[in-house]
Design a protein that fits this description.
One of its GO terms (molecular function) is metal ion binding. By secondary structure, this protein is of the alpha+beta class. The chain is built from seven helices and twelve strands. A six-stranded mixed sheet has the order 3-4-2-1-12-11. A six-stranded mixed sheet has the order 5-6-7-8-10-9. Helix 4 packs parallel to helix 5. Bound molecules: 2-acetamido-2-deoxy-beta-D-glucopyranose. The site of 2-acetamido-2-deoxy-beta-D-glucopyranose (NAG) has 9 residues, from loops.
């Protein structure tokens, strides 16, 4: 027997404060995201930067007929921003809050207040134990003088350790989220090597004739991109990932594509990031 599991992840950039403190067009973007998810055929959705639990309640309530199971990972003062929606039953959840996460006196950076975490939701997928992780690591504000680099590196190490030690009884393991780390960075290799994960974007079997370079943030074709950033990163950055580990059952990656890019019939994008989705074929017996 075999079946498909289709998963999507998106950093939603949804700070629920009035502009310019909060995120531009938040309500409209989240409404349209709900519409898109309602019409999609994703089985599992992980989101980051849903900073207000009210926004999460609205999203999960409006999508309950499609995704009956959902969970918001609580942390810090504002919530961790990470959550999961699923067609499959969430059997248990666990959250780990990173020990180092910016500085409390850096009030102009939201990171410390959010209490960055990795969240785990164990799903029952047709009798298989599937561990879905979602995370959002500390932002990189200045690559040349990165005050938070040790924080992000230690978060990468804790993430990998947490995943390694909590996933051992799972049949299938998927890690999603915004790492704020590029593929050439040390943190990327710490996560992939220690937790024994494959990067779905690099392992995708076919590019479907698309010339998409997989950049997920600060893209030149995104209406929220800071033009200043484009001087240094003309194509944007790849910092959002789907990584996976095949366990005891046979797992095959069928496709991995960027998605949730342009809102149909609108000039807006869903977020300042774009989504990433991966489809896996799972064979049992
Ligand atoms: C953002 O939206 C515009 C307008 O719909 C679209 O042309 C563009 O491709 C979108 N960009 C991304 C990165 O999704």
């Amino acid at each position: 027997m075999s079946f498909f599991v289709n998963l999507v992840t998106l950093n939603c950039w949804a700070i629920a404060q009035p502009w310019p403190f909060g995120s531009k067009d938040r309500k409209e973007r989240l409404k349209r995201l709900v519409d898109a998810l309602e019409e999609s055929d994703y089985d599992i959705v992980t989101l980051q930067e849903i900073w207000s639990e009210k926004d999460f309640d609205k999203i999960s309530t409006n999508l309950a007929h499609v995704y009956p199971y959902s969970h918001y990972f609580h942390s810090g003062f504002t919530g961790s921003g990470t959550c999961i929606l699923s067609k499959y039953m969430i059997v248990s959840t666990l959250v780990h809050r990173y020990s180092l996460n910016g500085f409390a006196h850096h009030i102009h950076r939201g990171d410390w207040f959010g209490g960055k975490v990795v969240g785990l939701a164990e799903l029952n997928v047709k009798g298989l134990r599937v561990a879905i992780y979602t995370t959002h690591l500390h932002a990189e504000y200045n690559r040349d003088n990165d005050l938070y680099l040790p924080h992000r590196i230690s978060q990468a190490f804790e993430l990998a350790q947490f995943l390694d030690h909590t996933s051992r009884s799972s049949d299938f393991v998927i890690l999603t989220g915004d790492f704020n780390i590029e593929p050439e960075d040390l943190g990327y290799h710490i996560i992939a090597k220690i937790a024994n994960l494959e990067d779905a974007w690099l392992k995708r079997p076919s590019t479907h004739g698309s010339n998409d370079n997989g950049m997920t943030c600060d893209r030149p074709d995104n209406c929220y991109t800071n033009k200043h950033q484009l001087k240094r990163w003309p194509e944007g950055k790849r910092i959002d990932y789907i990584m996976y580990q095949s366990g005891k059952k046979h797992i095959e990656l069928v496709e991995c594509l960027t998605c949730l890019d342009k809102i149909p019939g609108s000039k807006l994008n869903y977020s300042d990031h774009i989504g990433l989705h991966a489809k896996f074929k799972i064979s049992t017996g």
